[in-house]
């Protein structure tokens, strides 16, 4: 399927990039992405990804818009207070595509799931997407998202912001096993003291992390590098640090998965060798 | 016993020459279950702290998880 004229014009500034091109744009338009959490991070990521032409977006959040959200969650208005964030976000993003060619933008392919992601439903909620954005606002949900992504072998792009501290990282055990998973870096038993509801945050601070997260997600969808690093952004000094992620060989979440993958690869390798030998014999 | 110096979150500290990352953190009275550790730009997973020796000139950073969004 090639891009029609309207799509070509709409996405021309993206297509112009050698890293994207027409093929890259088609990749984005064929991509399926879940966004968990429609707060400060998720509402902006959803806008960027939808506007970039991502084919299918699933918005997952069980929260309602509150007055105290409005200074940083710019997709929502005063009149949305009391409505479910996922549904408001879906309607607003669909509205942006309305009237345009149906092939353009994710029009009609944005769905809202008003449900709290937990250990029981995470895998089924995330089972049919190619990439997950962890835009949640608490440590427990982040662990559930990670466990599901590890089990499903789905790439997980994680961002977080509180106070003037931001963190960004991406995991994909199938492409980058040595970098481990979220639990390798932050085990579930780690003590956490803050979240946006208990610690202050400025809109542009969480917006900065959301923009970095959306950029990283688009890069990974295009097959560009971006896995394996933890970025720490200090909003007071403006400094960004970049650290290499390392798998914990004893990680309770990914150690077994990686072992079983390795055994599968080894078995496949063996079969390949045997059949190669067989061919030589014949 | 001989000591080596290393940088912990930008502070120069002295530790015994054969100290593991874990014993160094305990000496510094760091709350172990609240931090991740980076050494020379690479994350050192928690299960390796007891097995990894400090080296002179190490640059080590500790930080907590940020979970908000
Ligand atoms: Zn892990």
TrEMBL record, chain A:
One of its GO terms (cellular component) is cytosol. Gene3D superfamilies: NAD(P)-binding Rossmann-like Domain. Coiled coil: none annotated. SUPFAM superfamilies: Activating enzymes of the ubiquitin-like proteins (SSF69572). It comes from the Bacteria. Residues 11-252 form the THIF-type NAD/FAD binding fold domain. GO terms for molecular function: nucleotidyltransferase activity; sulfotransferase activity; thiosulfate-cyanide sulfurtransferase activity; ubiquitin-like modifier activating enzyme activity. Pfam families: ThiF. Belongs to the HesA/MoeB/ThiF family. This is HesA/MoeB/ThiF family protein. It comes from Shewanella insulae.
UniProtKB/TrEMBL annotation, chain B:
The lineage of its organism: Bacteria, Pseudomonadati, Pseudomonadota, Gammaproteobacteria, Alteromonadales. Transmembrane segments: none annotated. It comes from the Bacteria. It holds the Pfam family ThiS. This is Sulfur carrier protein ThiS.
């Amino acid at each position: 399927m090639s891009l029609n004229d309207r799509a070509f014009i709409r996405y021309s500034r993206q297509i112009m990039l050698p890293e994207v091109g027409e093929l890259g744009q088609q990749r984005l338009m064929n991509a399926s992405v879940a966004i968990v959490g429609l707060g400060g991070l998720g509402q902006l990521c959803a806008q960027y990804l939808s506007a970039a032409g991502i084919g299918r977006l699933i918005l997952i959040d069980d929260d309602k818009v509150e007055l105290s959200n409005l200074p940083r969650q710019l997709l929502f208005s005063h009149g949305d207070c009391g409505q479910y964030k996922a549904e408001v976000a879906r309607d607003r993003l669909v509205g942006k595509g309305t009237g345009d060619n149906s092939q353009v933008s994710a029009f009609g392919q944005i769905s809202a799931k008003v449900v709290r992601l937990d250990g029981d439903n995470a895998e089924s909620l995330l089972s049919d997407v190619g990439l997950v954005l962890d835009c949640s606002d608490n440590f427990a949900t982040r662990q559930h998202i990670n466990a599901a992504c590890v089990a499903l072998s789905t790439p997980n792009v994680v961002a977080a912001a509180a106070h003037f501290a931001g963190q960004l990282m991406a995991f994909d055990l199938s492409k980058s096993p040595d970098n481990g998973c979220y639990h390798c870096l932050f085990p579930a038993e780690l003590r956490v003291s803050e979240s946006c509801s208990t610690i202050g945050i400025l809109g542009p601070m969480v917006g900065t992390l959301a923009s970095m997260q959306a950029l990283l997600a688009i890069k990974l969808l295009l097959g560009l590098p971006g896995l394996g690093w933890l970025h720490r952004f200090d909003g007071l000094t403006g400094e960004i640090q970049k650290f290499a992620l390392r798998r914990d060989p004893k990680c309770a979440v990914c150690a077994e998965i990686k072992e079983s993958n390795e055994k599968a690869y080894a078995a496949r390798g063996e079969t390949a060798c045997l059949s190669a030998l067989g061919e030589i014999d014949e | 016993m001989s000591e080596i110096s290393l940088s912990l979150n930008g502070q120069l500290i002295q530790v015994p020459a054969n100290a593991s990352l874990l014993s160094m953190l305990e000496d510094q009275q760091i709350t172990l279950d609240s931090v991740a550790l980076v050494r020379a730009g690479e994350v050192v997973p928690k299960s390796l702290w007891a097995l990894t020796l400090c080296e002179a000139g190490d640059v080590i950073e500790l930080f907590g998880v940020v979970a908000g969004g």
